[in-house]
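It is worth pausing here to work through a concrete case rather than discussing structure prediction in the abstract. The textbook approach is simple: state the sequence, then state the predicted structure, then interpret. We follow exactly that order.
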Amino acid sequence: MQDSSIILLDCTLRDGGYYNSWDFSTELINDYLQVMSSISTNYVELGFRMFDADDFKGGCAYTTDQFINHLDVPDGLNIGVMVDASAIESYKEGRDQALSKLFKKASESPLSLVRIACHYSQFNEALLNSFDKA
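Step two, the predicted structure:
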């Protein structure tokens, strides 16, 4: 039984995607989610939220709500994504437009967690200035 004060977050698919351009089969992802649920993992950080790029990246790179909704996510397993704070801050149309483009309202999304990645030197700006109204 898991200690309720410990929260388990797995980022194997997001982090492992650097080796295959985040192009995992739906079958593998669904099997993986079942395993994570069976071992009482609280959160699976499935991939990233990022803006379109010119090169190919699979579903665990962009990890849209539509992509998540087509998976067999077990009840009780929370799905998260990572977003790069610098991509939000450097978006040419501004922070609010960047967030609106990347995320729906929480009540309309299958996401339970958004993890914001930033360099240590960007931490105060990302935390205090960038996402205070997000």
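Step three, interpretation. The helical segments are 12-16, 26-38, 59-62, 65-69, 85-89, 95-102, 123-130. The beta strands are 9-10, 43-48, 78-84, 111-117.
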